[in-house]
Amino acid sequence: MSGLLRSSDNAGILGAATLRQLGEQQVERPAAAPLVEPATAPVRVAAAAPALSRTKRGIDLAVVAVSSPLWLPLGAVIAVVVLVTSRGSVLFGQERVGLGGTRFKMFKFRTMHREAEQLLQQDPDLWDDYVTNGFKLPAALDRRVTKVGRFLRRSSLDELPQILNVLNGTMTLVGPRPVVPAEIDNYADRRDIYLSVRPGITGAWQVNGRSNIDYPERVDIDEEYVRTWSLGNDLRILARTPLAVLTARGAY
Description:
Low-confidence stretches: 1-47
Number of strands: 4
Number of helices: 10
């Protein structure tokens, strides 16, 4: 009888332990590995069609191909000048935020000394000026910029290698200007509008004043472009771009 009682006691202890174990698992599992993510559907706008438009992509490739007799030799000359006037690589790639939040390298002709990024990270005052000025510094005040780089920035010729970004599909000819990761917070609750399209070499912000237009007005311009997008509007922006480049309004 005592043996049966001991067996019963042991079974009870084991049963209680098992139930306690199951209870712990039931309590802990959701905290450790939630099975369902909270429903936070991003804002999608119908005007995000530019990211899906095959016609827009076709125009990008056609314009790049037709204009290649102009930009290829010009790019070659600039590359040689950059190479012989300062130490470092010809191209500079900076991380930007693209379609759907994808990070990509946006290409430019190098306009700074090769240790420029380290100088920016190591100088708190320079970094504060960089952030305050919309994540860009006027070339005249930026000691990291070379003499050739000042001319390239003023003329916007430093942007020419972004044709490579258009070819690989990370950018388009017309769209919101690509932002650095730290800059996306300026879009606040409208960030999904920016993320719903590919960033562009030129765009509504670029032809309306560029760096002379700061946040939040820049966000307003990007939102209007996306919501009211049309191929005709893209062509109008492309037509206005040469004048914007020649006048250098907001370029630095």
